[in-house]
Amino acid sequence: PLSPAQQRIWFLNQYDTTTPTYNIPLTLHLTGHLDTTALHHALTDLIHRHQPLHTTYPLHHGHPTQHIHPHPTTPPLTPTPTTETQLPHHINADTTQPFDLTTDTPLHTHLYQLDTTHHTLTLVLHHIAADGHSLTPLTHDLTTAYTAYTAHTHHQPPHPTPPPLTYTDYTHWQHQLLGTPDHPTPTTQTQTTYWTTTLTNIPDTLPLPTDRPRPTHRTH
């Protein structure tokens, strides 16, 4: 099952699969000699280590489900030659590339080469699999794996300790705590009653004295 937060994000994604609103970009500027083979192995390890990075969310009997791919693949990281002037355009194109969560795993990666000692790696995650706090452990795991691979001449795997919990474990705990819309738990019933009462008769919009009019179309 999906967590309630994932269900909301999944619905918004399927409402408009062309928008990059829920993309989370991470751009890493790399200086010095880059072992692209080791980096590819490190990305593969990262994707295998974290289930949300190799999960799609197709419909099953009319409801979104988590499909965790048991053997995810990482496309080869072939560096794209570019210049300082062109690089921002490449990064913008990467970070605005949309996802269709029913078929796309929630991570896009691209590698750009400015010269032999300067590269830029872009990682774009969808919010259904990550949030702002995810970027620090993601970067840590990627750099740890890359360091381990470059320390071995034959690119042997680093054998990291697996995470003690996965997001799927958390999702199951949430469902036990909250139940379902058809069969809510007492905790959910209490919260629903409170907020339904508290939010009764609130206005559709707040008449705040803003200095700009509300746009006709969403601009984010």
UniProtKB/TrEMBL annotation:
Condensation domain location: 1-218
Any one of the GO CC terms: cytosol
Alphabetical list of InterPro entries matching this protein: CAT-like_dom_sf, Condensation_dom
Gene Ontology process terms (BP): amino acid activation for nonribosomal peptide biosynthetic process; enterobactin biosynthetic process; lipid biosynthetic process
Region ranges (Disordered): 201-220
GO molecular function, one term: phosphopantetheine binding
Transmembrane segments: none
Superkingdom of origin: Bacteria
Protein name: Non-ribosomal peptide synthetase
Organism this protein belongs to: Rhodococcus opacus M213
Lineage, opening ranks: Bacteria, Bacillati, Actinomycetota, Actinomycetes, Mycobacteriales
